[in-house]
Specification:
mainly alpha, about 90% helix
Amino acid sequence: MLGLGNNLNELKMRILQIQDEISQLGSPEPVMPEMINMTNTLRLNEYLTKSDEKKTALNAAYADYTRQLEQIISSLLSIQADLKDILKAEASIIDAHDSGKTEKKTRAKSKK
């Protein structure tokens, strides 16, 4: 479980790094009237390609992060179920022990 927490932190750092890289891209450069339309289109396409690559990486990081969270939740639910079973077993042992004491007291009173 400790390994999951470390992996989760690594994924979180990866997500933050990618988000920072996306914000560093800024917005596409404005159209320059002195350049021909094709050049402006190429510049925009280059920006969109970089942006799409970063967003794809971000989506992958979020998917990994989500899988790790689901695995942690699954482990926690399994532990919770095990703890419930242990508590039920302990409660039945305590009940059996208490009823044994009651029977001994009743027998002792009967003998008097």
